[in-house]
């Protein structure tokens, strides 16, 4: 890759990370539960008295360490850069959230947040400089053991939610909608970003 291509990819990762962090923060604080991993972050945050951003970073570090041992080919510079920017921005945006007393408006904010999260994640993925920590665990387990990715992800999602709820995280509408909506939006964004930005 040329220097220009590297700069373009790094810029896309940073922009995607910021958008994804803003989206997940909107969705998380709307009051309808959290996305799968966010349920775990909530549980860790409440149990160990750390910020949501710190909780997301702790989970990511554990996952990255696991993948480095299990299948390090899944890890690249984008994995680390995404997580640092993402976790810092989650805490930054968490201090800025403003919501309405009307449930329907908060529901709309949650939906916008989920869409932004998926778009940001798609942008990051389009740069193709390593998988996110959660995706790295998913693909490492699937590829090493010849399991289907969707089945591994379903099991991991269920495990994250169960552990998160045990620790005090909130399962709700946001959790379900994120699982249903985010995949197609991420896939669409990856395809469009690669064509438009020429990644």
From TrEMBL:
Which Pfam families does UniProt cross-reference here?
Answer: DUF6198
- Tell me what organism the protein belongs to: Coprococcus eutactus
Q: Which UniProt keywords apply?
A: Membrane, Transmembrane, Transmembrane helix
Q: State the coiled-coil residue ranges.
A: none
Family annotation (PANTHER family): INTEGRAL MEMBRANE PROTEIN (PTHR40078:SF1), INTEGRAL MEMBRANE PROTEIN-RELATED (PTHR40078)
**UniProt entry tagged with the keyword Ion transport:** no
InterPro entries on file: YczE/YyaS-like
* First and last residue of the signal peptide: none
Q: What is this protein called?
A: YitT family protein
According to the record, the segments passing through the membrane are 12-41, 47-68, 80-98, 104-126, 154-181
């Amino acid at each position: 890759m040329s220097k220009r291509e590297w700069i373009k990819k790094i810029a896309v990762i940073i922009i995607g990370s910021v958008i994804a962090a803003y989206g997940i923060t909107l969705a998380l604080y709307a009051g309808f539960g959290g996305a799968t991993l966010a349920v775990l972050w909530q549980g860790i945050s409440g149990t160990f008295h750390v910020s949501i951003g710190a909780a997301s970073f702790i989970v990511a570090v554990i996952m990255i360490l696991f993948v480095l041992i299990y299948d390090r080919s899944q890890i690249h510079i984008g994995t680390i850069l995404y997580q640092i920017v993402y976790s810092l921005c989650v805490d930054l945006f968490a201090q800025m959230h403003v919501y309405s007393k009307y449930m329907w408006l908060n529901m709309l904010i949650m939906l916008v947040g989920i869409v932004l999260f998926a778009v940001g994640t798609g942008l990051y993925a389009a740069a193709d400089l390593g998988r996110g920590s959660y995706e790295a665990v998913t693909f490492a387990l699937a590829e090493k053991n010849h399991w289907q990715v969707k089945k591994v992800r379903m099991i991991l999602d269920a495990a994250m939610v169960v552990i998160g709820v045990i620790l005090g995280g909130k399962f709700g509408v946001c959790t379900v909608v994120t699982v249903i909506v985010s995949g197609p939006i991420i896939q669409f964004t990856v395809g469009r970003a690669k064509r438009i930005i020429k990644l």
